[in-house]
Amino acid sequence: AKIIYLKDYQAPHYTLEHTELHFELLGDYTEVSAELRFKRALTAPKEAVLTLLGADLELLSVAWSGQLLSANDWQWQDEKWQFAGAGEGGVLSTKVRIYPDQNLALEGLYRSHGLYCTQCEAEGFRKITLYPDRPDVLSTFRTTIVADKASCPVLLSNGNCVATGDSENGRHWATWEDPHPKPSYLFALVAGDLAVLRDSFTTVSGREVALEIYTAEVDQDKCDHAMRSLQAAMRWDEERYGCEYDLDRYMIVAVSHFNMGAMENKGLNVFNTSCVLAHPATTTDAGFQRVEAVVAHEYFHNWSGNRVTCRDWFQLCLKEGFTVFRDQQFSADQLSAVVQRLEDVAFLQTHQFAEDAGPLAHAVRPESFVEINNFYTLTIYEKGAEIARMLHTFLGADGFRRGSDHYFKTYDGQAAIVEDFLNSMAVANGLDAGAFVSQWLRWYRQPGTPVVSVNSVWQKDIQRLTLTLTQTQSSKSSSTPESLPIPVRLGFIGKEGELSTSLNGVTANEHLLVLEQAEQSWQFDDVSQVPVLSLFRDFSAPVRVKAEFGDADLAQLIRLDSNSFNRWSASYALATREILALAEQYRSGDLRAHQPQESALAAAIAEVWSELAASDPALAAKMLQLPSLAYLSDQVACYDPEALQRARESVLLQVIAPLQSALGTVLAKQEMLKPYVYSAQAIAARSVEAVALDGLARLQSGAAAAIAQHWLKEAPHMSAEQAALTTLVHHQLPGADDALQAFYARWKHEPLVLDQWFATQASAPQAETRERVEALLAHSDFDATVPNRVRAVIGQFANNNPVAFHDAEGRGYGLIAKQLLAIDARNPQLASRLAGAFGIWQKLDESRQAHILRELDGLLSGDLSSDTRETLS
Ligand code: B3K
Ligand code: ZN
């Protein structure tokens, strides 16, 4: 496979001044005519060659400034099309034929269920026409679409619709003009029979923007939430980042066949239905939150990604990391900031940390890749967001805003690199740019999660605490790792609560340190008693912390920390410690493990939980959701899924047991049965009831089953229905099968709800689930060409069901390998992503490793896409 290196980057020899496209959407195929006006770049040599890219195209004709060319005039190898006669510039006219119906990879132009749509990022545009398909070539676009009027009444592309008309044979056309120069990956076309919800937004400078959400007719009643989210995001970006929308129209199209969540094409976002449709009857709280976050994320790309784009795909984090940070900030402002933060952190620690510690580890800005589609990763998105957040913490909110203003202003209309972003942050804040950029760039260059070790010494006589922090980089770093700038927000928790302390003459409850050296010390004065350190508040840096906390210390944080995030993270740490200790006993066959143990976690939670359930129900719910197996597997050197699962269940039971009556009190409120309201408060109330029901299922299964049935019967919304169904199915309570059947009968015509139905079963944490999944794969509603359905069954089984996936005989791996092969033949991006489930292999015992390696060898010895081959290799 061909490896592409960042160090080999070369600026394009030709710039593109304008792009004209003409699409004839015909029944069996599509013809695309392009007119591209090129100009030799000032920096290019005289003998410059015009290089375009094309894949899977039937080339019908090529002309250069009106002269027809023949195959002798160009060279076309692999995807590279080269023409040496372009001189100072001219117009290239091409005509190609493509087959959208046969395109099951869902990249480029494809048609599913009659709807034409495009997905061009990262390199899909070359499957539409010959083009300089690279993000640093920007041009204005004018696009005409011609199609059958009856089957495709709606014809959309980027920008403004400037003309429409009817042509012969029942066909019609529309011409769109996008005045903002953009790279080809932001191009979009949609054609089909769609209904539309319209609204509007008035920008801060008083311009009226038409907002349109296109969906299938039957889904029009599920667009209100996305529309409200869009309006909120547009206002928020003006207020928080000074970013105003720049076209007269903003369109979102919902598509049922889509490889990822959504795509930020200029003025015409294409969305997976799962990220735009929401209705209380069909969508859970998590679904509503996801729609809000993704709508905002794609909207925010209009500045961080579209107005300022990326020079090359190595800079992907420049738009993705920054935009994830922006959408996280937005979501925190919409609902609960603490819940948002602890969900984002748990996600990062569970999935990104594991990625960064395993065979798929890479830098936030990698130095090389084979298939760029494999680099839309947790590291680039989530760790990238954490770097932006650290800059925000380090510079302060105002300083960060000065930096982002400078960045948007300086690089508007350009394709930038990570250094430009860091440089803006430095220059706008009067810092030494050279030093700042080189120091912060290390976060982007060094893979692996840093470890910070903590040592503190309290001197009673002078009331002084000396804190020493040491950073070490993981062995994933290729060359000699350098020290990173690590912001540490911390407080001190005494026996009665938070202490105020002095650092360099500043007295406060909380301090911000920046660890820059391999080892550094700080002295805090006026420390009147020996405190427990509340470190890395709100997770101020994406590091692993090594500190000698006793159980009692963690319990003290759970009880008394003023930082809610750290209360939760202390409970997470204590739970992890107890589960791992117990699992180790199971593994070593220690008989005492069968006796009930003292649990400091259970004691600490018992003390605070009832009060917390009333005052902060969201946090109370989170405290009962002990770390998942996926999280725990990252905390151990050798991963034994059975021992960990057993230990986790046992600790959970110890935590729940003293809470029986508290759970009853929570459930008696019946918040779940109230009409749906989308607010932080209502979501918190429902989440604590769902967790309480799950807890009760472990203590009194009969009572839990009765409540679940009651919810199913009375459910005013999907959040209640889904919570009840999950409890019944995952705990194998009486009536579970009937409930599944009834749910199916009720929802079989709602694809997104049916996805949930499949997912609930595929994630049931029992070994027997494997057979159930085999049956689900044969179900008449299972369709392997729909990515959402594949993820609901195969993805859930591989990524969200460790007990069944890691079957000791290797049968879970066999099931996934077989499915992978079939999916890869149609849709490489989807298959490659699923293949990531095997990334855990090195942590497993020898026997499981052998099972996995046998499957991987089998797959690698056959025909595979370059995407999946790179991941599996
Ligand atoms: N930029 C797209 C992701 C494209 C993935 C291509 N394989 C969605 C987003 O991050 O907003
Ligand atoms: Zn994005």
UniProtKB/TrEMBL annotation:
EC category: hydrolase
Name the UniProt record assigns to this protein: Aminopeptidase N
Gene Ontology MF annotations: alanyl aminopeptidase activity
Residue intervals of the Peptidase M1 membrane alanine aminopeptidase domain: 226-440
Native source species: Paraperlucidibaca wandonensis
UniProt cross-references to Pfam families, sorted A to Z: DUF3458, DUF3458_C, Peptidase_M1, Peptidase_M1_N
Catalytic activity: Release of an N-terminal amino acid, Xaa-|-Yaa- from a peptide, amide or arylamide. Xaa is preferably Ala, but may be most amino acids including Pro (slow action). When a terminal hydrophobic residue is followed by a prolyl residue, the two may be released as an intact Xaa-Pro dipeptide
Family: Belongs to the peptidase M1 family.
Entry-linked InterPro entries: Aminopeptidase_N-like_N, Aminopeptidase_N-like_N_sf, PepN_Ig-like_sf, Peptidase_M1, Peptidase_M1_dom, Peptidase_M1_pepN, Peptidase_M1_pepN_C, Peptidase_M1_pepN_C_sf
Domain Peptidase M1 alanyl aminopeptidase Ig-like fold: 448-547
KW Cell wall biogenesis/degradation (keyword) present: no
Cofactor: Zn(2+)
EC number annotated for this UniProt entry: 3.4.11.2
Keyword terms of this UniProt record: Aminopeptidase, Hydrolase, Metal-binding, Metalloprotease, Protease, Zinc
Record PANTHER family: PUROMYCIN-SENSITIVE AMINOPEPTIDASE (PTHR46322:SF1)
Aminopeptidase N-like N-terminal domain segment(s): 108-186
Record carries keyword Hydrolase: yes
Underlying gene: pepN
Domain Peptidase M1 alanyl aminopeptidase C-terminal: start-end pairs: 551-873
